[in-house]
Amino acid sequence: MLALGIIIPIIIGCAFVHAVHRGGGLLSDRSHVVNCFFIGTGTGIGITSLLYFLWLQFLGSPGTSYIIAEVMVALCLIGFSAWTVVRAKNSRTSPGQKGSDPVSRFCRVISAGFWGLLALSFMGFLLASLNTPHGGWDAWAMWNLKARFLFLGGDQWRNLFSVTPDLHLDYPLLLPGFIARCWTYVGDDPVVVPAVVAAVFTFSTVGLMYSALAVLRGRSQGFLAGIVLMGTSAFLREGAGQYADVPLGYYILLATVLVILHGRENIQSFLALAGLAAGLAAWTKNEGVLFLAAFAVAHFTTTLYTQGIRNYISQLMKLSYGLFPVLAVIIFFKWWYAPPSSVVLAEGVGPALEKVFQASRHILIIKYILVEFISFGGLLLIFYWGLSGLRMEKAEISAIVFSIIILSIMMAGYYFIYLTTSFPLDWHLGTSLRRIFLQLWPLFVFTYFLALPSWEPAPIQETSATGEKKGTI
Protein backbone atom coordinates (compact mmCIF):
# COMPACT_ATOMS: atom_id res chain seq x y z
CA MET A 1 0.00 0.00 0.00
CA LEU A 2 2.98 2.33 0.40
CA ALA A 3 3.52 2.32 -3.35
CA LEU A 4 -0.14 3.27 -3.85
CA GLY A 5 0.18 6.01 -1.24
CA ILE A 6 3.04 7.56 -3.22
CA ILE A 7 1.66 6.94 -6.71
CA ILE A 8 -1.81 8.39 -6.06
CA PRO A 9 -0.59 11.93 -5.22
CA ILE A 10 1.75 11.88 -8.21
CA ILE A 11 -1.18 10.90 -10.44
CA ILE A 12 -3.35 13.59 -8.83
CA GLY A 13 -0.64 16.20 -9.29
CA CYS A 14 0.21 15.36 -12.90
CA ALA A 15 -3.45 15.06 -13.91
CA PHE A 16 -4.23 18.31 -12.09
CA VAL A 17 -1.40 20.16 -13.85
CA HIS A 18 -2.48 18.81 -17.23
CA ALA A 19 -6.16 19.47 -16.57
CA VAL A 20 -5.51 23.05 -15.48
CA HIS A 21 -3.48 23.52 -18.63
CA ARG A 22 -6.32 21.93 -20.65
CA GLY A 23 -4.11 19.72 -22.75
CA GLY A 24 -2.22 22.31 -24.73
CA GLY A 25 1.51 22.01 -25.20
CA LEU A 26 2.51 20.05 -22.11
CA LEU A 27 2.84 16.80 -24.03
CA SER A 28 4.34 18.34 -27.16
CA ASP A 29 7.81 16.86 -26.61
CA ARG A 30 9.81 14.74 -24.18
CA SER A 31 11.22 17.69 -22.20
CA HIS A 32 7.73 19.06 -21.57
CA VAL A 33 6.44 15.64 -20.49
CA VAL A 34 9.30 15.26 -17.98
CA ASN A 35 8.72 18.82 -16.80
CA CYS A 36 5.02 18.12 -16.30
CA PHE A 37 5.88 15.04 -14.21
CA PHE A 38 8.20 16.85 -11.83
CA ILE A 39 5.82 19.80 -11.53
CA GLY A 40 2.97 17.40 -10.81
CA THR A 41 4.84 15.34 -8.20
CA GLY A 42 5.25 18.15 -5.68
CA THR A 43 1.88 19.64 -6.59
CA GLY A 44 0.13 16.35 -5.84
CA ILE A 45 1.98 15.90 -2.54
CA GLY A 46 0.97 19.40 -1.47
CA ILE A 47 -2.67 18.97 -2.50
CA THR A 48 -3.07 15.64 -0.68
CA SER A 49 -1.36 17.05 2.43
CA LEU A 50 -3.90 19.87 2.51
CA LEU A 51 -6.78 17.42 1.95
CA TYR A 52 -5.54 15.22 4.80
CA PHE A 53 -5.38 18.15 7.22
CA LEU A 54 -8.86 19.38 6.23
CA TRP A 55 -10.25 15.84 6.60
CA LEU A 56 -8.73 15.64 10.09
CA GLN A 57 -10.15 19.01 11.02
CA PHE A 58 -13.70 18.60 9.76
CA LEU A 59 -14.36 14.85 9.31
CA GLY A 60 -12.24 13.20 11.99
CA SER A 61 -9.50 10.59 11.80
CA PRO A 62 -8.99 9.47 8.16
CA GLY A 63 -9.41 5.82 7.31
CA THR A 64 -10.54 3.73 4.36
CA SER A 65 -13.11 6.34 3.39
CA TYR A 66 -10.32 8.89 2.95
CA ILE A 67 -8.37 6.54 0.66
CA ILE A 68 -11.49 5.92 -1.43
CA ALA A 69 -12.10 9.66 -1.68
CA GLU A 70 -8.54 10.27 -2.88
CA VAL A 71 -8.78 7.53 -5.48
CA MET A 72 -12.04 9.02 -6.74
CA VAL A 73 -10.38 12.45 -7.01
CA ALA A 74 -7.52 10.87 -8.98
CA LEU A 75 -9.92 9.12 -11.37
CA CYS A 76 -11.94 12.30 -11.95
CA LEU A 77 -8.78 14.28 -12.72
CA ILE A 78 -7.52 11.56 -15.06
CA GLY A 79 -10.86 11.58 -16.88
CA PHE A 80 -10.90 15.35 -17.24
CA SER A 81 -7.25 15.40 -18.32
CA ALA A 82 -7.93 12.74 -20.97
CA TRP A 83 -10.90 14.76 -22.25
CA THR A 84 -8.70 17.85 -22.62
CA VAL A 85 -6.16 15.82 -24.63
CA VAL A 86 -8.86 14.59 -27.03
CA ARG A 87 -10.28 18.09 -27.35
CA ALA A 88 -6.84 19.57 -28.02
CA LYS A 89 -6.13 16.98 -30.73
CA ASN A 90 -9.45 17.63 -32.44
CA SER A 91 -8.86 21.38 -32.52
CA ARG A 92 -5.27 21.17 -33.72
CA THR A 93 -4.87 22.18 -37.32
CA SER A 94 -1.34 20.86 -37.71
CA PRO A 95 0.78 18.31 -35.89
CA GLY A 96 2.21 19.83 -32.73
CA GLN A 97 4.98 17.32 -32.28
CA LYS A 98 8.39 18.88 -32.34
CA GLY A 99 11.21 17.18 -34.11
CA SER A 100 14.00 15.95 -31.88
CA ASP A 101 17.02 18.21 -31.80
CA PRO A 102 20.37 16.73 -32.80
CA VAL A 103 22.32 15.66 -29.73
CA SER A 104 25.87 17.04 -29.58
CA ARG A 105 28.83 14.97 -28.46
CA PHE A 106 29.28 17.28 -25.46
CA CYS A 107 25.66 16.70 -24.44
CA ARG A 108 26.17 12.92 -24.67
CA VAL A 109 29.20 13.12 -22.37
CA ILE A 110 27.39 15.35 -19.88
CA SER A 111 24.35 13.06 -20.06
CA ALA A 112 26.48 10.03 -19.19
CA GLY A 113 28.00 11.90 -16.26
CA PHE A 114 24.55 12.97 -15.06
CA TRP A 115 23.08 9.46 -15.13
CA GLY A 116 26.18 7.98 -13.52
CA LEU A 117 26.12 10.52 -10.71
CA LEU A 118 22.36 10.00 -10.30
CA ALA A 119 22.92 6.27 -9.76
CA LEU A 120 25.70 6.96 -7.24
CA SER A 121 23.57 9.58 -5.49
CA PHE A 122 20.68 7.17 -5.19
CA MET A 123 22.94 4.49 -3.72
CA GLY A 124 24.42 7.01 -1.29
CA PHE A 125 20.94 8.17 -0.31
CA LEU A 126 19.87 4.56 0.26
CA LEU A 127 22.91 3.78 2.42
CA ALA A 128 22.45 6.95 4.48
CA SER A 129 18.78 6.09 5.01
CA LEU A 130 19.68 2.57 6.15
CA ASN A 131 22.29 3.94 8.57
CA THR A 132 19.91 6.53 10.04
CA PRO A 133 16.39 5.25 9.29
CA HIS A 134 14.76 7.84 11.57
CA GLY A 135 16.57 10.70 9.85
CA GLY A 136 18.31 13.61 11.52
CA TRP A 137 17.31 15.27 14.78
CA ASP A 138 14.74 17.62 13.25
CA ALA A 139 13.16 14.72 11.36
CA TRP A 140 12.47 12.37 14.26
CA ALA A 141 12.04 15.06 16.93
CA MET A 142 9.70 17.31 14.98
CA TRP A 143 8.37 16.29 11.57
CA ASN A 144 7.95 12.54 12.10
CA LEU A 145 6.82 12.98 15.71
CA LYS A 146 4.10 15.37 14.56
CA ALA A 147 3.13 12.90 11.84
CA ARG A 148 2.69 10.19 14.51
CA PHE A 149 0.47 12.50 16.54
CA LEU A 150 -1.71 13.04 13.44
CA PHE A 151 -1.78 9.33 12.51
CA LEU A 152 -2.03 7.68 15.94
CA GLY A 153 -3.86 10.40 17.83
CA GLY A 154 -7.31 9.65 16.45
CA ASP A 155 -9.75 12.30 17.63
CA GLN A 156 -7.12 13.53 20.11
CA TRP A 157 -4.66 14.68 17.44
CA ARG A 158 -5.08 18.30 18.55
CA ASN A 159 -3.21 17.46 21.77
CA LEU A 160 -0.09 17.81 19.62
CA PHE A 161 -0.31 21.56 20.14
CA SER A 162 -0.26 21.30 23.94
CA VAL A 163 3.11 19.55 24.20
CA THR A 164 6.53 21.17 24.58
CA PRO A 165 7.11 24.26 22.41
CA ASP A 166 10.56 22.92 21.52
CA LEU A 167 8.87 21.06 18.67
CA HIS A 168 8.31 24.34 16.78
CA LEU A 169 4.55 23.88 16.94
CA ASP A 170 4.11 27.01 14.82
CA TYR A 171 5.54 25.18 11.79
CA PRO A 172 2.88 24.18 9.22
CA LEU A 173 2.02 20.59 8.41
CA LEU A 174 2.85 19.73 4.79
CA LEU A 175 5.44 17.08 5.69
CA PRO A 176 3.78 15.68 8.85
CA GLY A 177 0.40 15.65 7.10
CA PHE A 178 1.69 13.85 4.01
CA ILE A 179 3.67 11.29 6.03
CA ALA A 180 0.64 10.60 8.25
CA ARG A 181 -1.46 10.25 5.11
CA CYS A 182 0.95 7.64 3.72
CA TRP A 183 0.81 5.76 7.03
CA THR A 184 -2.99 5.74 6.65
CA TYR A 185 -2.52 3.87 3.37
CA VAL A 186 -0.07 1.43 4.98
CA GLY A 187 -2.10 0.97 8.18
CA ASP A 188 1.02 1.29 10.33
CA ASP A 189 3.83 3.80 10.92
CA PRO A 190 7.04 2.19 9.55
CA VAL A 191 10.17 4.36 9.36
CA VAL A 192 10.54 3.60 5.64
CA VAL A 193 7.71 6.03 4.79
CA PRO A 194 9.46 9.30 5.79
CA ALA A 195 12.62 8.04 4.04
CA VAL A 196 10.71 7.39 0.80
CA VAL A 197 9.03 10.81 1.01
CA ALA A 198 12.45 12.42 1.53
CA ALA A 199 13.80 10.57 -1.52
CA VAL A 200 10.86 11.72 -3.66
CA PHE A 201 11.49 15.38 -2.78
CA THR A 202 15.27 15.12 -3.14
CA PHE A 203 15.31 13.55 -6.59
CA SER A 204 12.25 15.49 -7.78
CA THR A 205 14.27 18.65 -7.14
CA VAL A 206 17.01 17.28 -9.40
CA GLY A 207 14.44 16.29 -12.02
CA LEU A 208 12.72 19.67 -11.92
CA MET A 209 16.08 21.43 -12.25
CA TYR A 210 17.03 19.36 -15.30
CA SER A 211 13.68 19.45 -17.08
CA ALA A 212 13.08 23.18 -16.59
CA LEU A 213 16.51 24.11 -17.92
CA ALA A 214 16.16 21.59 -20.76
CA VAL A 215 13.04 23.46 -21.88
CA LEU A 216 14.49 26.93 -21.32
CA ARG A 217 18.19 26.60 -22.17
CA GLY A 218 18.85 23.16 -23.64
CA ARG A 219 19.58 19.72 -22.24
CA SER A 220 23.29 20.31 -21.59
CA GLN A 221 22.47 23.15 -19.19
CA GLY A 222 19.95 20.90 -17.46
CA PHE A 223 22.45 18.07 -17.10
CA LEU A 224 25.17 20.41 -15.79
CA ALA A 225 22.81 21.95 -13.22
CA GLY A 226 21.71 18.51 -12.07
CA ILE A 227 25.35 17.43 -11.69
CA VAL A 228 26.15 20.51 -9.60
CA LEU A 229 23.10 19.95 -7.39
CA MET A 230 23.84 16.26 -6.82
CA GLY A 231 27.51 17.11 -6.33
CA THR A 232 26.58 19.27 -3.34
CA SER A 233 27.12 16.89 -0.45
CA ALA A 234 24.87 18.86 1.92
CA PHE A 235 21.93 18.48 -0.48
CA LEU A 236 22.01 14.68 -0.44
CA ARG A 237 23.01 14.45 3.22
CA GLU A 238 20.21 16.69 4.48
CA GLY A 239 17.79 15.09 2.03
CA ALA A 240 18.55 11.65 3.48
CA GLY A 241 18.28 13.22 6.93
CA GLN A 242 14.60 13.90 6.09
CA TYR A 243 14.87 17.63 6.80
CA ALA A 244 12.09 19.89 5.55
CA ASP A 245 14.57 22.29 3.95
CA VAL A 246 14.83 20.11 0.84
CA PRO A 247 11.05 20.10 0.22
CA LEU A 248 11.00 23.85 0.85
CA GLY A 249 13.82 24.31 -1.68
CA TYR A 250 11.79 22.26 -4.16
CA TYR A 251 8.70 24.48 -3.84
CA ILE A 252 10.77 27.68 -4.02
CA LEU A 253 12.32 26.41 -7.24
CA LEU A 254 8.96 25.20 -8.58
CA ALA A 255 7.14 28.50 -8.07
CA THR A 256 9.98 30.45 -9.70
CA VAL A 257 10.27 28.05 -12.64
CA LEU A 258 6.54 28.23 -13.34
CA VAL A 259 6.57 32.03 -13.50
CA ILE A 260 9.57 31.96 -15.84
CA LEU A 261 7.95 29.29 -18.04
CA HIS A 262 4.84 31.46 -18.23
CA GLY A 263 6.97 34.35 -19.42
CA ARG A 264 8.73 32.22 -22.03
CA GLU A 265 5.76 30.32 -23.44
CA ASN A 266 2.83 32.55 -22.39
CA ILE A 267 1.03 29.65 -20.70
CA GLN A 268 -1.50 31.39 -18.45
CA SER A 269 -2.25 28.33 -16.33
CA PHE A 270 1.36 28.29 -15.13
CA LEU A 271 0.63 31.43 -13.09
CA ALA A 272 -2.11 29.70 -11.10
CA LEU A 273 0.21 26.72 -10.57
CA ALA A 274 2.99 29.12 -9.49
CA GLY A 275 0.66 30.66 -6.92
CA LEU A 276 -0.19 27.17 -5.66
CA ALA A 277 3.51 26.25 -5.41
CA ALA A 278 4.29 29.47 -3.53
CA GLY A 279 1.49 28.70 -1.11
CA LEU A 280 2.78 25.15 -0.62
CA ALA A 281 6.20 26.60 0.25
CA ALA A 282 4.54 28.49 3.10
CA TRP A 283 2.68 25.28 4.07
CA THR A 284 6.05 23.50 4.36
CA LYS A 285 7.99 25.77 6.75
CA ASN A 286 7.69 29.25 8.26
CA GLU A 287 10.50 30.38 5.98
CA GLY A 288 8.04 29.87 3.14
CA VAL A 289 6.18 32.97 4.34
CA LEU A 290 9.35 34.99 3.70
CA PHE A 291 9.48 33.41 0.26
CA LEU A 292 5.90 34.52 -0.38
CA ALA A 293 6.90 38.11 0.36
CA ALA A 294 10.03 37.87 -1.82
CA PHE A 295 8.02 36.21 -4.61
CA ALA A 296 5.40 38.98 -4.50
CA VAL A 297 8.01 41.76 -4.63
CA ALA A 298 9.93 40.08 -7.46
CA HIS A 299 6.79 39.55 -9.53
CA PHE A 300 5.59 43.11 -8.94
CA THR A 301 8.96 44.61 -9.86
CA THR A 302 9.69 42.63 -13.01
CA THR A 303 6.15 42.56 -14.40
CA LEU A 304 5.46 46.22 -13.75
CA TYR A 305 8.73 47.22 -15.42
CA THR A 306 8.39 45.00 -18.50
CA GLN A 307 4.63 44.89 -19.09
CA GLY A 308 2.90 47.66 -17.17
CA ILE A 309 0.26 47.86 -14.47
CA ARG A 310 -2.62 46.30 -16.41
CA ASN A 311 -0.71 43.10 -17.20
CA TYR A 312 0.56 42.98 -13.62
CA ILE A 313 -2.97 43.08 -12.20
CA SER A 314 -4.10 40.43 -14.69
CA GLN A 315 -1.22 38.15 -13.72
CA LEU A 316 -1.77 38.81 -10.02
CA MET A 317 -5.36 37.60 -10.35
CA LYS A 318 -4.21 34.36 -11.97
CA LEU A 319 -1.56 33.83 -9.28
CA SER A 320 -4.23 34.30 -6.61
CA TYR A 321 -6.33 31.43 -8.02
CA GLY A 322 -3.67 28.99 -6.86
CA LEU A 323 -2.38 30.87 -3.83
CA PHE A 324 -5.53 31.89 -1.95
CA PRO A 325 -6.94 28.41 -1.18
CA VAL A 326 -3.61 27.36 0.36
CA LEU A 327 -3.24 30.69 2.13
CA ALA A 328 -6.70 30.27 3.67
CA VAL A 329 -5.67 26.91 5.17
CA ILE A 330 -2.40 28.38 6.48
CA ILE A 331 -4.19 31.32 8.12
CA PHE A 332 -6.69 28.93 9.70
CA PHE A 333 -3.87 26.75 11.03
CA LYS A 334 -1.91 29.72 12.39
CA TRP A 335 -5.00 31.24 14.00
CA TRP A 336 -6.34 28.11 15.68
CA TYR A 337 -3.30 25.98 16.43
CA ALA A 338 0.11 27.60 16.00
CA PRO A 339 1.69 29.42 18.96
CA PRO A 340 3.65 32.65 18.31
CA SER A 341 7.07 32.22 16.72
CA SER A 342 10.02 32.29 19.14
CA VAL A 343 12.56 33.38 16.49
CA VAL A 344 11.59 36.79 15.07
CA LEU A 345 12.03 39.72 17.51
CA ALA A 346 11.55 37.41 20.51
CA GLU A 347 13.20 39.94 22.87
CA GLY A 348 11.33 42.97 21.56
CA VAL A 349 12.25 45.84 19.26
CA GLY A 350 14.65 47.67 21.60
CA PRO A 351 17.16 44.86 22.23
CA ALA A 352 16.94 43.87 18.54
CA LEU A 353 17.91 47.38 17.42
CA GLU A 354 20.91 47.35 19.76
CA LYS A 355 22.18 44.18 18.09
CA VAL A 356 21.81 45.72 14.63
CA PHE A 357 24.58 48.22 15.46
CA GLN A 358 27.06 45.66 16.84
CA ALA A 359 29.79 45.28 14.21
CA SER A 360 30.98 41.98 15.69
CA ARG A 361 27.64 40.35 14.86
CA HIS A 362 27.81 41.49 11.23
CA ILE A 363 31.38 40.19 10.89
CA LEU A 364 30.48 36.79 12.36
CA ILE A 365 27.42 36.38 10.10
CA ILE A 366 29.35 37.34 6.96
CA LYS A 367 32.15 34.94 7.92
CA TYR A 368 29.72 32.04 8.29
CA ILE A 369 27.99 32.91 5.01
CA LEU A 370 31.29 32.93 3.10
CA VAL A 371 32.35 29.61 4.63
CA GLU A 372 29.05 27.97 3.69
CA PHE A 373 29.15 29.41 0.17
CA ILE A 374 32.62 27.94 -0.35
CA SER A 375 31.61 24.57 1.13
CA PHE A 376 28.64 24.42 -1.24
CA GLY A 377 31.00 24.82 -4.21
CA GLY A 378 30.67 28.55 -4.75
CA LEU A 379 34.32 29.03 -5.77
CA LEU A 380 34.01 26.32 -8.42
CA LEU A 381 30.95 28.06 -9.88
CA ILE A 382 32.80 31.38 -9.95
CA PHE A 383 35.69 29.68 -11.78
CA TYR A 384 33.29 28.14 -14.34
CA TRP A 385 31.64 31.53 -14.83
CA GLY A 386 35.08 32.94 -15.61
CA LEU A 387 35.64 30.21 -18.21
CA SER A 388 32.38 31.18 -19.92
CA GLY A 389 33.72 34.70 -20.43
CA LEU A 390 31.71 36.35 -17.63
CA ARG A 391 28.80 36.73 -20.05
CA MET A 392 25.08 36.43 -19.38
CA GLU A 393 22.30 35.58 -21.79
CA LYS A 394 20.51 38.84 -22.59
CA ALA A 395 17.33 37.02 -23.58
CA GLU A 396 17.00 35.73 -20.01
CA ILE A 397 17.64 39.02 -18.19
CA SER A 398 14.06 39.44 -16.97
CA ALA A 399 13.91 35.88 -15.62
CA ILE A 400 17.34 36.21 -14.03
CA VAL A 401 16.39 39.48 -12.32
CA PHE A 402 13.20 37.82 -11.05
CA SER A 403 15.20 35.02 -9.42
CA ILE A 404 17.90 37.33 -8.07
CA ILE A 405 15.32 39.55 -6.36
CA ILE A 406 13.85 36.50 -4.62
CA LEU A 407 17.28 35.25 -3.52
CA SER A 408 18.36 38.71 -2.34
CA ILE A 409 15.23 39.39 -0.28
CA MET A 410 15.34 35.98 1.35
CA MET A 411 19.04 36.29 2.23
CA ALA A 412 18.37 39.78 3.62
CA GLY A 413 15.52 38.38 5.71
CA TYR A 414 17.65 35.55 7.06
CA TYR A 415 20.49 38.00 7.74
CA PHE A 416 18.16 40.18 9.83
CA ILE A 417 16.87 37.16 11.78
CA TYR A 418 20.43 36.11 12.63
CA LEU A 419 21.36 39.68 13.48
CA THR A 420 18.51 40.03 16.00
CA THR A 421 18.25 36.44 17.27
CA SER A 422 17.78 35.86 20.98
CA PHE A 423 19.84 32.66 20.75
CA PRO A 424 23.66 32.69 21.03
CA LEU A 425 24.66 33.86 17.56
CA ASP A 426 27.53 31.44 17.01
CA TRP A 427 25.34 28.48 18.00
CA HIS A 428 22.40 29.69 15.87
CA LEU A 429 24.57 30.11 12.78
CA GLY A 430 26.37 26.82 13.28
CA THR A 431 23.19 24.80 13.66
CA SER A 432 20.99 26.35 10.98
CA LEU A 433 22.85 28.33 8.30
CA ARG A 434 23.70 25.25 6.25
CA ARG A 435 20.04 24.32 6.03
CA ILE A 436 19.13 27.92 5.17
CA PHE A 437 21.59 27.74 2.29
CA LEU A 438 20.03 24.45 1.28
CA GLN A 439 16.60 26.09 0.90
CA LEU A 440 18.00 28.59 -1.62
CA TRP A 441 20.67 26.49 -3.31
CA PRO A 442 18.44 24.82 -5.96
CA LEU A 443 17.12 28.22 -7.09
CA PHE A 444 20.64 29.66 -7.06
CA VAL A 445 21.99 26.83 -9.23
CA PHE A 446 19.01 27.13 -11.58
CA THR A 447 19.53 30.89 -11.94
CA TYR A 448 23.27 30.40 -12.46
CA PHE A 449 22.81 28.03 -15.40
CA LEU A 450 19.90 30.06 -16.77
CA ALA A 451 22.28 33.01 -17.01
CA LEU A 452 25.35 31.29 -18.47
CA PRO A 453 25.81 30.63 -22.20
CA SER A 454 24.92 27.08 -23.20
CA TRP A 455 27.28 24.63 -24.91
CA GLU A 456 24.52 23.77 -27.38
CA PRO A 457 21.95 25.82 -29.32
CA ALA A 458 19.12 27.00 -27.09
CA PRO A 459 15.62 25.63 -27.73
CA ILE A 460 13.80 27.56 -30.45
CA GLN A 461 11.49 30.14 -28.94
CA GLU A 462 7.92 30.10 -30.07
CA THR A 463 6.48 33.29 -31.48
CA SER A 464 3.12 34.83 -31.01
CA ALA A 465 0.66 35.69 -33.77
CA THR A 466 2.25 39.13 -34.03
CA GLY A 467 5.68 37.63 -34.52
CA GLU A 468 6.99 38.72 -31.09
CA LYS A 469 9.15 36.38 -29.07
CA LYS A 470 7.78 35.17 -25.80
CA GLY A 471 10.63 35.84 -23.45
CA THR A 472 9.53 38.19 -20.68
CA ILE A 473 7.90 37.54 -17.38
Q: Give the structural class.
A: mainly alpha
The number of E-state strands comes to 0
Q: Specify the overall morphology.
A: globular
Rg over C-alpha atoms, rounded to the nearest angstrom: 22 Å
Residue runs with pLDDT of under 50 for 5 or more positions: 93-100, 462-471
The total count of helices amounts to 18
Question: How would you name the oligomeric state of the polypeptide chains in this document?
Answer: single chain
Average pLDDT taken over every residue? 87
Helix content: over 70%
Order of helices and strands: HHHHHHHHHHHHHHHHHH
How much β-strand is present in the residues?
under 5%
The termini sit apart by 42 Å
- Main beta-sheet strand count, sense and barrel state: none
Give a structural overview.
With 473 residues, the protein is mainly alpha-helical. It is 74% helix and 0% strand. The chain contains 18 helices and no strands. It has helices at residues 2-21, 30-59, 64-91, 105-131, 137-152, 174-186, 192-216, 219-230, 233-240, 245-265, 269-284, 287-307, 309-336, 349-356, 359-375, 378-387, 397-420, 425-451. Mean pLDDT is 87; it is low at 93-100 and 462-471.
